[in-house]
Design brief:
TIM Barrel; 9 helices; about 15% strand; binds nickel (II) ion; about 260 residues; alpha/beta; eight-stranded parallel sheet
Length: about 260
């Protein structure tokens, strides 16, 4: 049976403080082979780095999320670079990007952090994990200028946006949102994205797919995301799981690490 690679999760989140070890250790018996934990701040990236050392199937990324950049002490870039030098299991810079949903993080500061981290990724020759919320035009402009390799995660945008992301050579990650009844736009975009550029992710503890909505999400629930994508793409769920597993290894350049 093919194993799931959850390409974007947040097991460092406090919602897992009570039973993190139990949840992570149960994943293997539930069909999950690998997970990537995405960093949102220096503090959380340090914690993720520790977790990758504790579990062989856990990999991580390190970066500052657009909402968290306002709280980040300087010089954050040096600390990030240090983390990458210390731990090869930190395989990507992220999540980084733009988020206009909340008004507590100034757009110009977000842009500065986004661009600085894109440049760091280029310097370190690492892929990036892009977060974009209500910022599509600005995000695409910056990606076109800096041309990183990597993935746009938690995608729920239009076919036209997906087309532009794919033209830049990037991968696209889908969460449980694609299983929601009212997610017609996501489903259309998932239909458009070719199998060899598709990733699946939980973004857990958030975004639990149908039929688990409202529950705390974990990587084993991705089997229902795979089932919905299989239906959309006219292939088996097994094929979705196997292909997205291999895609994640490719985009995160993990061939020599597993
Ligand atoms: Ni995330």
């Amino acid at each position: 049976m093919a194993l799931i690679f959850d390409s974007h999760s947040h097991y460092d989140n406090s919602q897992f403080d009570g039973d993190r070890d139990e949840v992570l250790c149960s994943l293997k018996s539930k069909g999950v082979g690998l997970v990537l934990l995405a960093g949102c701040s220096i503090e959380r990236s340090v914690f993720i780095s520790e977790l990758t050392k504790k579990y062989d199937f856990v990999f991580g990324s390190a970066g500052v999320h657009p909402i968290d950049c306002i709280d980040e002490p300087l010089p954050y870039l040096d600390r990030l670079e240090q983390l990458f030098k210390e731990n090869k299991k930190l395989v990507a810079v992220g999540e980084i990007g733009l988020d206009n949903h909340y008004d507590n993080s100034p757009p110009e500061l977000q842009k500065k952090f986004f661009i600085e981290q894109l440049e760091l990724a280029k310097k370190l020759d690492k892929p990036v994990i892009i977060h974009s919320r209500e910022a599509t035009a600005d995000m695409l402009d910056i990606l076109k200028e800096y041309k990183p390799k990597g993935v746009v995660h938690c995608f729920s945008g239009s076919v036209e946006t997906a087309r532009q992301i794919l033209d830049l050579g990037l991968y696209i990650g889908f969460t449980g949102v694609v299983t929601f009844k009212n997610a017609a736009k996501s489903k259309k975009s998932a239909e458009f994205v070719p199998l060899d550029r598709l990733l699946i992710e939980t973004d857990c503890p958030y975004m639990a797919p149908v039929p688990f909505r409202g529950e705390r999400c974990d990587s084993s629930m991705l089997s229902s995301v795979a089932e919905v994508l299989a239906e959309i793409k006219g292939v088996s769920a097994e094929e979705i799981i196997e292909t997205t597993y291999n895609n994640a290894i490719k985009v995160y350049e993990m061939e020599g690490l597993i």
